[in-house]
Amino acid sequence: MTRDDLFNTNATIVATLVDGCARHCPEAMICVIANPVNSTIPITSEVMKKHGVYNPNRVFGVTTLDIVRANTFVAELKGLDPARVNVPVIGGHAGKTIIPLISQCTPKAGAGSATLSMAYAGARFTFSLLDAMNGKEGVVECAFVRSEETECKYFSTPLLLGKSGIEKNLGLGKLSAFEEQLVADAIGELKGSIKKGEDFVANMK
After folding, report:
1. Residue 178, H or E segment
2. Which listed residue (58, 69, 93, 196) is catalytic?
3. Which Gene Ontology MF annotations are present (predicted)?
4. Quick one: the chain helix, strand, coil %, rounded to 5?
């Protein structure tokens, strides 16, 4: 399926589910993994706004699969355990909007291995969020969220998670010139995807 096919299928599904959340559990943490995330997160936000219950600190586009992939590829190239590699991935969750920050890559402590599966990625993000909600400190994950970090309304960056969702947006950090160009190149496509999601909700019956 193309991203457009995905949009046509998933936009209504996400809008319907979020409408239910807005009516029955407006304070819930909403983690959306349904693609295209670059559009389904704006859809989620706009539906919540319609009900007057939007809290940007509680709405997450799960981009963890990109981090899992980046960690795995770097680990394979360097002969490391993927669970010991941490590559922040910023931007969005499609094509050239996915920007792995190799310049900020760090080997990290830990054991076990990561596969390239959506289920693993979704579980990892959810468990991190639950840990943070239960009081664990220093939990950081990247996610596609409402953001002031670039000229895009939504952007994925590392986030410090806490009991109320996003505790602090850790921003882009120091980028190499190459990475700065990748961000610049991603902005146009991201803005279009965001607007597509917003327009979908605006035109909903």
Report:
1. helix 177-202
2. 93
3. L-malate dehydrogenase (NAD+) activity
4. 50, 20, 30
d(CA 142, CA 171): 10
Q: What is the pLDDT of residues 22-35, one digit of tens each?
A: 999 999 999 999 99
The count of C-alpha atoms lying within 13 angstroms of the C-alpha of 199, restricted to the half-sphere facing its C-beta, is 8
Label residues 12-33 b or e (16+ Cβ within 10 Å = b): eebbeebeebbeeeeeebbbbb
What backbone torsions phi and psi does residue 168 show, to the nearest 5 degrees? -155, 135
Residue 45 near residue 54 (C-beta atoms within 8 A): yes
For residue 1, the model assigns a pLDDT of: 76
d(CA 178, CA 191): 21
Report the phi/psi class of residue 135: left, alpha or beta, with left for phi > 0 and alpha for psi in -120 to 50.
left
Mean pLDDT is lowest, of 22-36, 98-112, 135-149, for 98-112
Query: Which residue type, as a one-letter code, is found at position 15?
Result: A
Query: What is the number of other CB atoms lying within 10 angstroms of the CB of residue 151?
Result: 9
Least confident range from 28-37, 102-111, 190-199: namely: 102-111
Say if residues 105 and 46 touch (Cβ distance below 8 Å). no
Q: Is 51 a catalytic residue?
A: no
Other Cβ atoms less than 10 A from the Cβ of 5: the count is: 10
Q: Answer yes or no: are the C-beta atoms of 99 and 90 closer than 8 Å.
A: yes
